[in-house]
Amino acid sequence: MSSSFPVQPLSPLDGRYRAAVAELGEYLSEAGLNRARVEVEVEWLIALTNESAFGTSPLDEVAQDRLRLLYLDYGQAEIDWLAEREAVTRHDVKAVEYLVRDRLAQLGLDRLAELTHFACTSEDINSTAYALTVKRAVHDVWLPKLRAVIAALSALAEKHRDAAMLARTHGQPATPTTMGKELAVFVWRLQRVERQIAASEFLAKFSGATGTWSAHLAAAPDVNWRLVASRFIEHLGLGFNPLTTQIESHDWQVELYDRVRHAGGILHNLATDIWTYISLGYFAQIPVAGATGSSTMPHKINPIRFENAEANLEISAGILQTLGQTLVTSRLQRDLTDSTTQRNIGVAFGHSLLALDNLLRGLGEISLRDDVLLADLDGNWEVLAEAIQTVVRAEVTAGNSTITDPYALLKDLTRGRRVGASDLADFVSQLDISDAAKQRLLTLTPATYTGIASELVELI
Questions:
Q1: Same structural domain for residues 237 and 324?
Q2: How far is 159 from 156, CA to CA, in rounded Å?
Q3: Which residue in 301, 295, 296, 264 sits closest to 279, CA to CA?
Q4: Which positions of the chain have pLDDT values less than 50?
Q5: Is residue 2 domain-resident?
Q6: How do residues 35-77 score in pLDDT, each as one tens digit?
Q7: Catalytic sites, residue numbers
Q8: Which of 7, 102, 201, 422 yields a CA-CA distance of 20 to 30 A from 269?
Q9: Has UniProt tagged this entry with the keyword Magnesium (predicted)?
Q10: Which residues of 428-443 are buried (b: 16+ CB within 10 A; e: fewer)?
């Protein structure tokens, strides 16, 4: 192959689909992680001076603001600096420490240099940085997109709450429902898991090499270091885990990724159902100007948004499951399996976010075909067999009928057979039931046999 071929992104998330997932890069990329590491180092240094540790005094607001610019103004210069230094240190967190020390010298704060990374193990910085970046990615990027999908789905459910349609259980014609109610089921499911994800904990540890604060106490035995550490972590808006090995145990991550995977499963179910409704003709796809459905069949509009969502949700679920399986275990007090695994958090969320983007677009490109729904209902009058045999049972119980086996009676009439409106009308007219019950059944149609489906939409 030609050596002149330009370097290309290996992942489609960084190539073809970059525009849809770029926001995640601010948090879940290598640069995003390093910026958060700088933030933790800087805030820990400020926290130590606020405690007047080792004869220091609290920094004034100007000095604190200048220090915080190290991560607030973090950009390409810092990215390049860290890349060069890590090539020498072969240790990413140590390179971050050196960056902070270098910038302290530039700010004339050399006297604080030894408070940089004070008594920290790398995992104090990493667990806190990961908690910060994952929390921000979830709350600032992923959840808003999920909520946008839920909102779009809710709007469709409300719009089509009265649109009667034939239900299908086991793929066969079943008791009618409404399109709005069926979409509302997905809204209800997604709202529940969205609340769980929004309430997730994001935990960090800050207790030294093996979680015992040993070095801290060796340097200052009279300080309540556990309290100092917990105040520091909570100041960053995170939960504090006081009982750990060298690493934070990652249980909060496993819980979060399981919930995100659960949401993905519901969304996958939504994608396959909408795809099926399109296949049945229930939804028409709105043509996009200039788009091509098939390279050889000009008439086609393919449901690519929902197919793309399906595939990306499956990829995301696979990675999230691997994250959960790997992160829950660490050999003795620490091994490095979690380090490599956590670098794929952004990939998992990236494919999930891409799926959400496709679902949102897809839901905006479909239009309900009421005529198809009604024609389908009109071709399946046998679904009223449930209503008839249930009414007959009630009549028998009330003493208005002597029919001995209502279910068998309707089964003989309808099972495996197409029954039309006139057939059912003749059948009902001859039933041994009260006139009032007959009239209720004779006025019933598949399109009106939807129970409280429309009212149920209000529950979302």
A1: yes
A2: 5
A3: 301
A4: 295, 297-298
A5: no
A6: 999 999 999 999 999 999 999 999 999 999 999 999 999 999 9
A7: 170, 294
A8: 201
A9: no
A10: beebebbeebbeebee
Rama region for 63: left / alpha / beta (φ>0; ψ in -120 to 50; rest)? alpha
For 270-297, b/e burial (b = at least 16 CB within 10 A) is bbeebbebbeeebbebeeeeeeeeeeee
Report how far apart, in Å, the C-alpha atoms of 257 and of each of 34, 319, 328 are.
Answer: 22, 9, 12
For the record, the structure tokens of 39 come out as 């933030």
Give the distance between the most distant pair of CA atoms in the chain.
100
Kindly report whether the global pTM for this prediction surpasses the value 0.85: yes
Tell me, yes or no, whether 14 lies in a domain: no
Mapping DSSP to helix (H, G, I), strand (E, B) and coil, where does residue 229 land?
helix
The pairing of strands 239-240 and 203-204 is parallel
Q: What per-residue confidence (pLDDT) applies to 260?
A: 98
Last residue in a domain, options 84, 118, 152: 118
Q: Which pair of structure tokens corresponds to residue 226?
A: 């556990």
Predicted local confidence at residue 299, as pLDDT:
54
Contact 429, 443 (CB under 8 A): no
Nearest to 46 by CA among 33, 35, 59, 34: 59
Q: Check residue 173 and report its DSSP letter.
A: E
Exposure string of 301-337, with b = 16+ CB inside 10 Å and e = fewer, is bebebbebbbebbebbbebbeebbebbeebeeebeee
Q: Residue 355's closest CA among 439, 272, 276?
A: 272
Amino acid 417: pLDDT? 76
The reported pLDDT for the residue numbered 49 is 97
DSSP secondary structure, 359-427, as one string:
HHHHHTTEEE-HHHHHHHHHT-GGGGHHHHHHHHHHHHHTTS---S-HHHHHHHHHTTS---HHHHHHH
pLDDT for residue 409: 84
Amino acid at residue number 293: G
Length of the chain counted residue by residue = 460
Write the Ramachandran bin of 423: left for phi over 0, alpha for psi from -120 to 50, otherwise beta.
Answer: alpha
